[in-house]
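Moderator note: this is an archived Q&A kept for reference. The question asked for a predicted structure of one protein chain; the sequence and the answer are reproduced below.
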Amino acid sequence: MRAKILEKFYEWSKTPYQRFLKTNEPWIVSIQELQKYPKASLGFHLSRFLLRNDFEIQAKLEAHDVFHVLTNTGVSVPEEISMQYYLWGNGKRSLYQFSVIALGSILYPDYLKKFIHAYHKGTSALVFHQLDFSKMLYQPLKKIKSTFLIP
């Protein structure tokens, strides 16, 4: 039931968030193109993440999936909340993110320890949430993670 509440929140809020709050340009790349990137690259790993989860590239929200790849975070509802805590610890701030953290913390108090641990991991990494990942797709994933101290 609690997962359904957050999924409905996401469905209800995704389009307005994309349209009115995200000012970045959508990436001009397909999953098929990403699959052709070097095997060690962020782009290739992003394609694997998208295909493994049967996801499409969502215009203006591409960085969200990159965060999953960089932090090695799954896509269950508690994992999504955990990733938002991680990004909060890394310095990312948005009303949408705060809403997910607040609602997620209320609905998943049994995961609070995990969320706080994710927050601390985010504080330990160098700030990376604001990077333009579209320009880093050819970079080796391991190099990005080691540069920004992402475990």
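Archived answer notes: The radius of gyration is 15 Å.
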